[in-house]
């Protein structure tokens, strides 16, 4: 099943309609999955197809997508809320490597915390329903002269 069909089913299961505007917003997120877009970036990408679409509609739709656990609202330390699609078929949110020098964000799809979750369940009676792990540091290339931020003065993600 394609991701849009899965998302449509999630909307229907919660008695929400996947309107054409909402679908356009989801499509932008799917098409730019690696970019961790902000509300404003989603708005600018959707505005071409839906010029009448307001920024408030994008905000409300992204919040609904968070509520339905389709996307995760994230902040990588740059003061900007970004939206990241949850991986289909994974129980938990994927993890991130965040470079504090250039701002590059890389995703880790593997779930390295299953053993820890089992231990928490066993020792504390605590059932983990979700987790997210962000590693902050610096890429080796950013400690030398190869950092993209130093070349163009802006962070990348």
TrEMBL record:
Residues annotated to bind Fe cation: 90, 114, 131
GO-annotated biological processes: negative regulation of DNA-templated transcription; regulation of secondary metabolite biosynthetic process
Cofactor note: Binds 1 Mn(2+) or Fe(2+) ion per subunit.
List of residues binding Zn(2+): 99, 102, 142
Cofactors required: Mn(2+); Fe(2+); Zn(2+)
Lineage top rank: taxon: Bacteria
Record-linked InterPro entries: FUR (IPR002481), Fur_C (IPR043135), WH-like_DNA-bd_sf (IPR036388), WH_DNA-bd_sf (IPR036390)
Membership in a protein family: Belongs to the Fur family.
Protein's recorded name: Transcriptional repressor
């Amino acid at each position: 099943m394609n991701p849009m069909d899965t998302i449509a089913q999630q909307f229907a299961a919660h008695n929400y309609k996947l309107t054409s505007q909402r679908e356009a917003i989801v499509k932008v997120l799917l098409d730019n999955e690696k970019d961790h877009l902000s509300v404003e970036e989603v708005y600018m990408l959707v505005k071409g197809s839906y010029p009448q679409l307001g920024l408030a509609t994008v905000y409300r739709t992204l919040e609904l997508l968070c509520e339905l656990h389709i996307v995760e609202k994230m902040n990588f330390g740059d003061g900007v809320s970004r939206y990241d699609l949850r991986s289909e078929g994974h129980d938990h949110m994927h993890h991130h490597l965040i470079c504090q020098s250039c701002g590059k964000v890389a995703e880790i799809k593997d779930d390295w915390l299953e053993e820890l979750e089992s231990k928490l369940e066993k020792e504390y009676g605590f059932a983990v329903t979700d987790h997210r792990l962000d590693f902050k540091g610096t890429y080796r290339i950013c400690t030398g002269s190869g950092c993209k931020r130093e070349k163009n003065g802006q962070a990348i993600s």
